[in-house]
Design brief:
The protein is α/β, with parallel strands linked by helices. It is about 45% helix and about 15% strand. The protein has two domains: about 1-40 and about 115-123, no CATH class; about 40-90, no CATH class. The chain has helices at about 15-25, 40-50, 60-80, 95-105, 115-120, and strands at about 1-5, 35, 55-60, 80-85. The protein has a two-stranded parallel ribbon. Strands 3-4 form a two-stranded parallel ribbon. The longest helix is centred in the middle third of the chain and has 18 residues, at about 60-80.
Length: about 120
């Protein structure tokens, strides 16, 4: 799993902390490793890692419309394919921004976070 940094976003956790949370959350899955993506394009990172596909979750057609141009460009640049997984409809209304805002204002969103993330959010 590539942990990237989008410099136009504000993160609550450092890259190292985010890698640690992903590792703790998916560490029991065979063949799954979390690592920082570093600078550059996701397609190049995938190629360097020998990955044949990028797996992304979609909540809605808005996500699909946003992701298709990137998937097409990634295929063009390196041949890596993108596989889309549809989110469970119980979660399609969620976004990281919404969850962070509700949590920061005292709302109960615990069920939406993996334990590794929730533990750090509550500190």
């Amino acid at each position: 799993m590539a942990v990237s940094t989008n410099h136009s976003k504000k993160y609550r956790f450092s890259e190292d902390e985010r890698v640690a949370m992903v590792t703790e959350t998916v560490g029991g899955l065979r063949g799954v490793v979390a690592m920082p993506m570093g600078q550059g394009l996701l397609a190049d990172f995938c190629k360097d890692q020998g990955a044949e596909a990028i797996v992304k979750g979609l909540r809605s057609t808005v996500d699909y419309a946003y992701e298709i141009p990137m998937a097409t460009m990634n295929r063009h640049l390196t041949g890596v394919e993108t596989v889309f997984l549809q989110a469970d409809t119980r979660f399609t209304h969620l976004s990281s921004s919404l969850l962070k805002e509700v949590q920061s204002l005292g709302g109960d969103v615990d069920e939406y976070f993996p334990r590794a993330v929730l533990r750090r959010l509550l500190k």
